[in-house]
Write a structure and sequence with these properties.
single chain; 103 residues; mainly alpha; 2 domains; two-stranded parallel ribbon
Length: 103
């Protein structure tokens, strides 16, 4: 409010959040070829898609990992759930790439 005066009140924020959720699909996105990966320690996971029954919007939820941990260089001390998640990500990408090669 100090920076944006009274234009950015709760009503305005509710409106822009609703617009963003409508545009991107909120927690029911209409995406394909996207894998949603979140860690339980990642503060953003509460706003992300962490569980989906739609095979076109697969998810991986990694217990005990932080933001983007699956993107870090693997090391020998990585927890097993992180190693397993990386393997799932590789399989997803391989399947996706294979489908494009088959075209």
């Amino acid at each position: 409010m100090d920076i944006y005066s009274d234009r950015m009140d709760a009503e305005y924020l509710d409106q822009v959040v609703a617009n963003t959720n409508t545009f991107y699909g909120a927690l029911k996105p209409e995406t394909t070829n996207v894998l949603y990966v979140h860690g339980s320690i990642d503060p953003w996971h509460a706003l992300g898609l962490i569980n989906s029954k739609n095979p076109k919007t697969p998810t991986i939820y990694i217990e005990g990992t932080a933001h983007c941990a699956n993107m870090y260089e693997p090391i020998h001390t990585d927890p097993p759930q992180l190693v397993e998640a990386r393997n799932k990500i590789i399989k997803f990408l391989a399947k996706l790439l294979q489908s494009y090669i088959s075209l």
